[in-house]
């Protein structure tokens, strides 16, 4: 939900229907299985281009619908680096880990971004190393202390 800084509408319902079934079956086979999580991208409203993708799809169909002028270029951070967005994203991670824990799935570690140095035509977000370190050190890390 756009501008849900307090994560009032946060939900893992989609995960419950598919992903969690696979995780729980794997845990039955290997009870000591350690799970880590990494998002493909933050919610689009938290990104500078307000779109799930980062790269323009120049195919005739333009499958992702991202206008070329809103494509991200490297090296750049595609996340809105204002404190309100950073705090909301840290809360997003916290709620995710807590929600999985309630479902019996302990998340051992999180990685804040899958492929942070790569623009993609699918869900993705670029992060400069210094911005990633700032987010983890000042916002995400303290939520997990």
Q: How many individual helices? A: 4
Order of strands across the main sheet: 1-2
- N-to-C span: 27 Å
Instruction: Let me know the largest β-sheet.
Output: 2 strands, parallel
* Overall pLDDT confidence: 97
Low-confidence blocks of residues: none
Quote the beta fraction.
under 5%
Helicity, as a percent range: 25-40%
Radius of gyration: 16 Å
Q: What string gives the helices and strands in order?
A: HHEHEH
What is the number of beta strands?
2
Shape: globular
Structural class comes to mainly alpha
In terms of topology, how is this protein built?
Elements: H1 13-17, H2 19-29, E1 35-37, H3 83-102, E2 107-110, H4 129-143
Parallel strand pairs: 1-2
Helix pairs in contact: 3-4
What report would you give on this structure?
By secondary structure, the chain is mostly helical. It has a domain at 39-106 and 116-143. 35% of the residues lie in helices and 5% in strands. It has helices at residues 13-17, 19-29, 83-102, 129-143, and strands at 35-37, 107-110. A two-stranded parallel sheet has the order 1-2.
Brief overview:
The chain is mainly α and 145 residues long. It contains four helices and two strands; from the N terminus they run H-H-E-H-E-H. The protein has a domain at 39-106 and 116-143.
Give a quick set of tags describing it:
two-stranded parallel ribbon; mainly alpha; 2 strands; 145 residues
């Amino acid at each position: 939900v756009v501008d849900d800084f307090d994560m009032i509408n946060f939900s893992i319902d989609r995960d419950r229907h598919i992903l969690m079934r696979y995780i729980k079956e794997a845990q039955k086979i290997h009870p000591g299985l350690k799970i880590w999580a990494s998002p493909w991208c933050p919610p689009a409203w938290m990104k500078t281009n307000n779109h799930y993708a980062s790269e323009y799809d120049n195919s005739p169909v333009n499958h992702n619908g991202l206008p070329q002028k809103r494509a991200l270029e490297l090296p750049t951070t595609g996340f809105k680096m204002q404190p309100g967005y950073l705090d909301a994203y840290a809360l997003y991670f916290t709620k995710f880990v807590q929600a999985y824990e309630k479902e019996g799935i302990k998340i051992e570690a999180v990685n804040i971004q899958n492929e942070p140095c790569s623009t993609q035509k699918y869900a993705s977000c670029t992060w400069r190393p210094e911005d990633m370190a700032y987010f983890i050190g000042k916002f995400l890390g303290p939520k997990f202390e």
